[in-house]
Every structure is written in C-alpha cells, then in structure tokens.
Amino acid sequence: MMKFRFRRQGNDPQREKIKQDLFAFNKTVEHGFPNQPSALAYDPKLRLMAIGTKSGAVKVYGSPGVEFTGLHKDMATVTQMHFLPGQGRLLSLLDDNTLHLWEISLREGATQLEEIRSFTLPGRPGIESTSATRVTVILLKWSCDVACLGTEGGGVHFLELPSLHLLDSKSLFQDEIMQSVPEDYKSGKSLGPVESLQEHPQNPSKILIGYSRGLVVLWDQTTRQVDNLFLGNQQLESLGWESSGKTFVSSHSDGGYMVWAVNSSSPRTQQPVSSIIPYGPFPCKAINKILWRTSESGAPIVLFSGGMPRASYGDRHCVTVLQEKTQVTLDFTSRVIDFFTIHSTDGAKDYDNPAALVVLLEEELVVIDLQTPGWPTIPSPYLAPLHSSAITCSYHISNVPTKLWERVLAAGQQQSPPQTHVKWPINGGKNLAPDPKHKGLLLTGHEDGTVRFWDASGVSLKPLYKLSTANIFQTDCDHNDSLTQPGEEEWPPFRKVGCFDPYSDDPRLGIQKISLCKYSGKLVVAGTAGQVLVMEVNEEMSDHLINTATVDLLQDREGFSWKGHDRLAPKNGPISFPPGFHPIILVQCLPPAAVTAVTLHAEWNLIAFGTSHGFGLFDYHRRGAVLARCTLHPNDSLAMEGPLSRVKSLKKSLRQSFRRIRKSRVSGKKRVVINSPTSKVQEANAQLAEQAGPADVEVAPVQRRIEPRSADDSLSGVVRCLCFADTYLRDGTHHGPTMWAGTNSGSVYAYALEVPSLEKFSEQSVEAVLGKEIQLMHRAPVVSIAVLDGRGNPLPEPYEVSQDLAKAPDMQGSHSVLIASEEQFKVFTLPKVSAKTKFKLTAHEGCRVRKVALANFGSVSSDDYSENGLMCLTNLGDIHVFSIPGLRPQVRYDCIRKEDISGIASCVFTKTGQGFYLISPSEFERFSLSARVITEPVCTVDLDRPHDSTAHSNNTPGSLQANGTHKVPSANDSHSLGEAEGVLEEIQAALSSPPLDSPNSSADITLDTTGDITVEDVKDFLVSAEEAEKNLKNISEEDARSPGILIK
Amino acid sequence: MNRSFNKSQSLRYLDCTAVEVKSKYGAEFRRFSVDRFKPGKFEEFYKLILHIHRITNMEVMLGYADVHGDLLPINNDDNFCKAVSTANPLLRVFIQRQEEVDYSSFGTNTLTRKKKAVVTLRNDVNRKRPHIRIGMPQDFRPVSSIIDVDILPESHRRVRLYRHGSDKPLGFYIRDGTSVRVTPHGLEKVPGIFISRMVPGGLAESTGLLAVNDEVLEVNGIEVTGKTLDQVTDMMIANSHNLIITVKPVNQRNNIVRSSRISGSSGQSTDSGSSAGFAGMPPPIAGHSFPPDDLESDEESDIVIESNLKRPSRRSTSSTASRAQPQAMPPAPPPPPPPSPPRPPSVISTASFHSQPSLNGAGNHNLSYKLHRDLNLQHHHSSTPIIRESNGSLHKILNTLRTDPRHSLALPRGGVEEDGTVITL
Predict the structure, then answer these.
(1) Are B312 and B370 contacting, i.e. CB atoms less than 8 angstroms apart?
(2) What pLDDT, in 10s, does the model give residues A260-290?
(3) The complex's ipTM?
(4) What is the pTM of this model?
(5) Rounded to whole angstroms, how far apart are CA atoms A535 and A465?
(6) How much is the CA Rg of chain A, to the nearest whole Å?
(7) Measured between CB atoms, does B99 come within 8 Å of chain A?
(8) Which is nearest to A1030 in space by CA: B271, B218, B24, B91?
(9) Inter-chain residue contact B116 with A1016, CB threshold 8 Å
(10) What does the alpha-carbon distance between residue A114 and residue A70 come to, in Å, rounded to a whole number?
(11) What is the dihedral of CA B117, B123, B125, B128, to 10 degrees?
(12) CB-based burial of residue A1003 (10 Å sphere; 0-12 exposed, 13-18 middle, 19+ buried)?
C-alpha cells in the first residue's frame, strides 16, 4: 500500500512544485529570555552581548534585530564566555571543561554563529586528579592572541588564539609562585585554585593572579617573575583593576572588599589600603564579583554583587552600586548570574566613565543607566521576560490595523513612561531585515491575571502593553505594595528592579482564553474562575463601576454540586482605569469552572464561552444572556460532583508556583565538579542501583488498554471550541448568524441566531435556536470548528467585509463546515450535514490532533497565488498541512519533541502560516510553515578580524545551529508526504479526472465533486479492479460499516 | 428523576402484550400478532407462519430484523422468544425457502446495506460459490472473522473484530516487546507490539482468534513498525468500531494451511482456525449457564454482567423510544431477504460466529422476563445487596442508553452514509 501511495505522489511533479512554492518549514527565531542563563559576555568594540545557557546554547545580541544563536554539541552548561573584542569570535567554557571557539561568519549569504574548534586542557602527567586541570577562570588578553586559563590545581596555562594551541612552555604552576612566597604565609598549605586572572590595564605583559586562599600575585609574563605579592588572608572571590593600574580591588567570601595599592618599590604588600565590609558588622555573604570604574564626574563607582547580611537579607539577590555617598542596592527577584558595565575602553582616556550597568539574572536582563541621576533602568528592546508570571495561554492577531496598533501603543506608553532618554547601549551590528509589512500582535495570558501585548511583527518581541485584570476583583490576598515600599527600611537602600514576579496572588485570576476583534478593539479575556471580561480600548482614563452578570451553565440539572473554588467577587464601588482596555461587562459562569473556550463577534455584539459544564451565549450590548446550555453527561455526575481534577490542578498550580519560587531562590553552587573520579564512581553506583531496581521487583510491563471511548468518560462535557459564522444552517437559501460549539465527547451543537439589525438593536433581543446536533461516531474531542464558504475558503472575520478589508465570502455555492476532532478532520455540507471529505489522522498515523488552525499560504514564485490550508500539530510534535476542503495531506514536518508536552500545548498558529511555541517557560520559538512569510533575523556585523592562517587548515566541526536553516527541509520532507496521504483521497484521485488531482486550487473544486466519493463508489472500484490493494478493501469496508444514524 | 422516568417507560411497555408481526415471503406479506409474554413454542410459530402464507409443504428458514437492522434467524424457542421480546414494536419476519437460504446473509448490517449493492448482488447470486455451512448459526451476528487468508503469509493472521452492535468491551491490552526477525544479516531483535492481556469475557477473548503474546503487525492495514505503543493504542482505538489486526500468533500450530484454499478443504481450515481459538477459552456453554448473580462474585466478570443486563434493557428502552416516534421507523427492507454481500473470496465469514453469552445455550431464560423480574425485585427487595447492585448497573445502563443516540434507533435513511448522527430538530 505504501508503494502504491508513493507512486501516486511521485506522479505529480507539478503539484510538488506548487507545494515547494507554498510550504517550507523553518524554525526562525527564539523570542523571550533564554532559559537558565549561566554565562554572560560583552564585546565593547562590536557592542555585542552574548548569553550562554545551561543547555549549551549561545546567543549573541546586538541592536534590536541583530541576533545569532548557536548550540554546543554537548548539552553542557556554559560556565564562562569571553569575546575576542572586535573579531566576532567568542570563547566559551563548558561544564565538562571543554573550551569552544565560536565565530560569526558569513555563509550562504546569511550571517551565522558557528563553532570553529574546541579544546580540552590535557591532564598533567603524574597527577591523577583531573580536577587539577579544571579551568576555573579565563583571561583573554586585550591583544586577543593569548588566553590565560586558571585551573583548580592553581596552575595558569596559556593558549594561543584563535588556534587554541596550548603554549606548554609558558605554563605557570604554583611551585613557581611558592618560591617567592614568605615561609610564614605558606604554612604548608597550597594556595588553592586560581580564582581570578586580570590583565594589567596599562602593561599587557603583567597579569594579576588571585588564588582562593587570598594570595594575589602580579606576574610578569615576559620576565616570568613575580612583580608583587599581596598577602591577603581572606578567601578570595574576585579581583578588579582600577584603570590606571595603580590600585586594584579584591572581594572576599566574608562579604568584604579590599583596595590594594600596587607599589613597584616594595615586592610584598601585607596590608590593603582599605578593607570594608559594606553590609557589616554582622556576618555577610560573599561578594562574588566586584568592578571598580573611574568616572570623570567624580568619585569612582564600585559595583559588586552579593555581600548581603546573611541573617536578615541572605536570600536577596542584589547588586550594589556605590559612588562616594550614593549607594543603591538593586534588589532583584532572581539570582544574579553576572554583570558588566558599558564604559569607555579607549586607552587614551583617563576615565572609564561607565554609561550603563548590565545585569544578567536568572530570569531577566536589567540595564541600569549610570549617566542619568537616580540610575534609572533602560527598557530592553528584546529578551523580554515573557514568563514574568507563568504563561497560561497565548493568542496571535495577524495584520493588525494601524488604528488598534496605535491605541495599544499609546496605552502602553502611558502605562510605563520612559524613565530615561538614553538609547539601548548594546547596539552592535546592523539589522538588514526589511520593516515588517504587517503588524502582528501576540497576546499572552498569565497566571496572575495579566494579559501582555507583544509586538510580534519582527525578530525581537517587544512589550507593548500590560493589561491587568486583578484590580477588578477582590482577591484572597490583596497585595499591599506599601509593605515593601522603600522608606520603611533605611538600610540597606534597596531598590526593586526588574519585572520578574513569580508570585501569583490568587490562582483563580489566571487567564485561560483570549479573543480580540482587531477592527473594533473589543477584547474578551476569560479566566480560571469562570470570569469572562468583555473589554474595549479607551484612550481616556475613567472611574466606573463594573457591570456584572452571571450565567448558570448547569441550568436546571440537578444533582451536581460544585466543590471547587468560589467565583471571584468583583470589587465594590467604582474602580479607576488608566487609558487602555476597560471592562464593559464581567460575565461570570456558574459553576465557576475554568473557561475552556471563548469567542467574540463584535459585529453582532455577542460573546460565547464554554466551561467543563456547558456553554453560554451573551449579548454584551444589551447585557443579557441569550443562551446557556449544559453539556454535562448525566453519567458525569460522579465525576463532576467531586471535581477532583480541578481541585487537584489548582493545588498543583499553587504548588508549582511555590516550587518555582523556591527553585529560583536556591543559589547555585559556584562550581560543580563532575570530572572527579569520586563522582564518577558515585555515578556508576547510582546507575547500577537503578538497573538493579527493576530487575529485583517483577514490574508489570507497560501496557495499554484497547477500549473505545464510551459516553461516560468523565469530563466529556468540556466545551473545547466555539465559533460564530454567517452561514446556511436552516436551509440552503437563507443564511444567517450561527454559533457552533464542540465538546470533549465529540458532540457539536449548532445554533441559528436571530440577530436584530443595527437600527433595531435596542428594541429586539438576540435569539438562539438549536439547529443541529452532531455526534461524531468516534467520540473524540472536537478541537476546532470552522465554516467554509462556497469556494471552500474560510469565512472572513467580523467587520472585514463591511469595512471592505476582505473579499466577501461566496454565499452562492453551498457552504460547508470543517470539524476537526482529536482523531479526524471532516468536512460536512451545509445545511444538510452530510459528510463530504474526511481524513482519519489517528487511524492512519496513530497520532492525535493537538492544535489546528487555518492559514493562507502565499506562493514564493507568484505573488497573487495562495492556498488555504489546515495546519495541525499532533501529540507527536509534528505538523501536518492539509488542503481544504479536500483534506489531502500536503506536507509534514517534525517540529517539537513529543516529550515536550508544554511546548505542544503552548503552540499558537498565525493566519499566515507561522507559529509560536514555548521552548522553555520564558522563550517562544517562532517557526514558519510558509515559504513566503518568514520572520527571521537578517543582520551583519562589521568585523575586524586579523588574517587567521590556521583557520582554514583546521577541521571545522560541523556547525550546530539552534535555529533551523532554510534550504534543507523542502526536498526531504516532500517525500514523506506519501505516508500522510489519505486512502480515500487516493482512490478518489485514481478514479477522478486529472483536475481533481490538484485539490489546492480550492476555488476550482466545486464542493459537489469531492462530495461524491461515497463508500459505494469505492467498493465498485475495488470490485472491478481486481488487483486493487487488499488493505484498501479493509478500509472501504470499514466505511461501509459505519452508518450514520438519523434520529428525529 | 431519571429513575422514575425509566421505570414508568418500562412498565408501560410491559403492559402492551400484543406484538405485531409482519412476515414476508417473496413479494407477499402477512400481518398478524403474537402475545409478547407467551409467544409459545417455535414449532407452533413455524406452523403458524406456514399456514398463514399457505406454504405448508415447504421447508423454510425464518429470519427477523432486529433493532440494529440485522437479519437474524429464528430457528429455536430461544431466539424466537428473543425476537418477540425485542420487537420494535413491529416484528418483521422474513421467510426463505430452505434450499435458497444463504447463511452469510445473516448477521451484522445485513439489512442496512445499500440497495445498490443489493441489486448488483442479486444478479450475482447464481454465480456465487456455494457457501460452506458450518453448523447452524444460532442467534446471531459475527463477532469476528479471519480475513485475507489468501494473501497473508501462513504465519500471520488477520483478525477482524466486529464491535458494532456489541456491548462487550474489546477487552485486550497491548505492550511493548521485542521480536526476532530474519534478515539478510541473520536474526535480529526488533521492537514490536504484543498483546499482553485479555479481559475475560471481552470480545477479543471470546473470538478465540487472538491470544496473549501474539505480535501485532498491522492495524487496519497500516504497519505498526516504528510506531510507539501509544501510537498503536490510538490507532486501535480510532479503528475500534471495526478493528482489523494482523497478528503473528504466538502459537503457530493451528495455522491455516495454505494449500487448503481450494474450496473443498477451506471449511476444514476454518474449523481448525476457530477451534484453535476456542481451545484457550473457558467452555462457553458452562460459562453462560451461570446465573448472573454467581458471576458477579468473580471480580473480573462484572463487565460481563453489565453486558448481560445491557442487552435486554437496551432493547426495551429503544423500543419504547421508537414508539414515541413512529415516523422514525426504519425504512422497509427490500422484499426478498438480501443475499450475501460481495465478500471478498478470502473471507471466511463463518470463522467465528459466537453467540452472545446471555442468549446462548439451553439454560437461558426469557430475557424480557428476566428484566421484568429485575425491575420487580427493585420494588420489593431493594435492600438485598446483590439486587441493589444489579439495580445500580441497570440504571447506569439505562442512563447511558437514554443519552446515547446510537442506541435509540438503528437503521439509517438512504442518504446518510456518515458515521455521525445528525439530529434534526
């Protein structure tokens, strides 16, 4: 059978060509903040910043739109990164003690980041412990020709750059240093690992070496002599030069720092110039990193992280900025990974004049303007912390009209007026991408009840506006900001910085579903406690009462009692709203279960919403419920009386948020030694223990029960999707407003609506009459419903036609409805609901539908050719595109790992064939299925790279791009199509005349021709063609045996 | 609320004692009635039919249309009783001359087939090979068959499970495992999917065609190689209403011998195939003769009990439902009994006719009577634990039935060939 299908596919090169013009799969860009960052680097010459992560990713950012991503082959944590300034090269150190050199290069017309070589420091002969050669610190000389590696064993090794060639003869071991150390200081102990290596700012041959025990040595590389010894006695954390080279500063584990004078006259310095414990006198935590920057305007600025009093503020994540009397303790909500200053690196200038402080935290990036008094923060144009509160849902609007765009923009600007006029300081590289033609808006709903609006038009996802719904409700714990207001505590002078806030006041506030009408600016936001808010853009600020209405979805069903959470009570009295989205009405579902589906038709002033109990239709203009329908199955009573699943999930979400908080609080160990032999033994033991476990206990093999879904599966009443359409429901001659709802048990309800005309809106009320009820025989949850017009195109959105923004739908030909369940897609004719085409995805492939959406795919070869397609993401993480209404598989791509359940659940498609999914709680991967619409970084960096003779002689390890590349997929993937080809369609193709073979020119296909594939046709074909595949016969028989049932 | 509703419905139905019978022989038909509760013996009914149709000197075979639209035979007291008790409300009887009887026309969906198909088939009738008779079909519908014997390797078996119209659970589990394949490089271990467990009394077990540790090779014609256990599970469930599994039976002793494809010996091969399956089962008659209460004590059998109760109760509710809506009555079938559908020659359709347990065997009671008794018992002794339990399950079933549109009526109208139900209001 497979052969048969493949042959048919291959027979149509023309169609293959069209497909190649329409579809191409690319993972284009990652939006948001890298998950679990672990290293930071900055190139002051190119003004580029690099972030390394625990998963081995390297991301380079410049000015907005300039982005490069690379991925180490091993999934090891990037512990350190250093730019070779100006060269566009980057040296990274991984957890596994390997060094990797990366290069920004131009390849195939695209600027990419790729790994060119790697290096591992060889173990010292005679010394067994590999940890001795474990690299602790790296110093890249300003000249870029040598890297100095400090090791755990206390040695310093030198590495030629960019060849990564070890200069063996130059290595400096502790014995050599020990010779000049006074006897009384030695006391038989080693100096400990190298903690810091710093190049002398004026004399490149001298390097400052700091050992863990506290000894600091100024070493002259050329003479191989110790210039100065600084006999520190406190355990050393870091060192920092003052730019003149006359003094340096050291930070220590006791929370203090010392300033040392470099005096060439005396080779030994016993005491520092000054020793300060800034947050003493009680025991303090270590100061992990310290910088000393001179400033033309006055006293030097000292910046350090940590050092907080252990008992009272030991759990805070702080960076202190200190300039004479001015001190600010920047108080972050997540762990400080690293920080650097952007300052003048021109050797000719006497002062550093730091312009900005860039702090990389575990969950966000914060940039402080050090030039403006008050040290305000500079809003970041990228790396937005998407997860400042956990994302609960997302919604994309393509092609946003300017009017709405500007209003959202204005509301956002009023919400957070810029605190500083300083431009984004990390502005290297040039963004070559053309300005996006259309504005795209991504809305994310969050656990704390906020909806964030993001500019998703281009490569960098920019925050536009934040809508908070929490202020409308009385929550369990009304957060009083006054508690944490400054002023209460005089010391330390804390200042809250950053927006990552994992605390959720009340899990009921969580946003579940969003729907926005881009023409009218109406927004529907629905949440966990059955709250449905209809909102509208308002440019003025206003105080008003919240109108509320409740809709009882249980109707008169008896015997159901809700044991879940209470509904959210709205605040009493008028609430003031800043410009932005203001609520028109709050509709609350009873019982207050989480809203599972919502839709809006602004032209008819109607919203529809569904929960696990039923669905409702509400007229927000007249503020009255039109319809409420219970979808609960009578047998569900047991399942629903104790809504365990919901209670559990609520508890779970609470627990998870706490866990997240706790996790982010745990300060990571400075270094994890995994290479040591002892740990290897432990590892092996652990593995053995694991293996032994299952062998001892006779574990039953994983098995799966084969049983069809029955009607009394619990939660069968969950409303999965809702849609409005102007179509033919009652008869074939009169079309009118309809509303469709699909449930978890494969039921579809279609209502005919009487919507009064605009003039009569105030007198007449909207009425809904049940028109059709469809029970899908396979009972799989209905994921999506869409109505297609006479040409097989999806109906336009509300207002699109009346505002001349879209072609009017074809109301002449007969409409059809596309119902996508988790197992099958089906197109039924309207108004007589009879099946026209179908594709049984699960029966053929064993995968289940997770997300579907309709999109318009434009052709790359001709501007005016486009096709509509049904995009489908399955539980295996692959994406299929089907033609509509033919439902013939077009392409299939692997997109998400099937284990990545949250990634699959978070996927959202755009109307132009792009999509987003979460690759971590904080990052969206953007992908494109369309060959024409691709949003990807296109940028250049002007490099100043000296000729590198070794570069070409060495083998270049294959680059591993985290981003997808463009050229690869189309050719291979088109071959795999055959598998997805539906059998019925196959037969149809074999039977029918050639024009039907190109199903995608959907306009060409009249609905009737596709509708004529009846089961009997198939059978006749099989009977006559004796050599026909036996397998086909099975399937055709199966079709014959699934008769519909007509019930009056 | 539901409870009282159902009760009254059932009782009302029980009050109505006369069952209208419409019997058809060739193009002629007759109407008469029988008593629902005292239908009498089959012999008497048979004589009555012959008398009414004035064909007393003929050997005929009687059949009736059940609620699912299936043509089922009437040839003993039990199935006669059942036919009467489940009349819907009309009992439609079809008479065939003994020598013209085509047994393959009995069974699932036989009356619902497309008229078109029927027409072509009628022309075909004479050309058709004579069907092999394997005993007398008792009541009923096929629950499984071995198909495609002629195209499959001898070591493989393609089994079709007809869940349609059956209340039994499919009743099996699958697991991951490794199988050994012969490749050019020698034997190779490859991952495979295996049947791991059979639910006693389930459809899979009762067919006897599948066994624990059989390797699953295909599901409805699609190979499972390279698919995960979850994928295969989903595929099977998605195809569950007509599941065709190709297995490599773990027990290769009872394979159908290829050479036996010649018509004469194919009957034998079928026998061996099905007897192989039965070997691994508890003796069916013994199992069925247990009264329901005894079986309830067995932990794993309560599923079986449910289905025992389900059938009669369902029939009764559905007949009530249909009385309320007489216009939705199934369309009359074509006058002569529909001959066999065009089965592919390789189908051994009689491979495993397996009767519904509750209806099989001599020890069975009148089912409607049993239901009646259960309902009565509810009134009088609702404190008895066993009875209460059965009440519970009965009501559960009644509830399911009330809301499950599939059960309310069976025959589709001509134009609907979709497997979805369209409820027009």
Answers:
(1) yes
(2) 998 877 778 888 999 999 998 899 999 999 9
(3) 0.73
(4) 0.72
(5) 15
(6) 33
(7) no
(8) B218
(9) yes
(10) 6
(11) -90
(12) middle
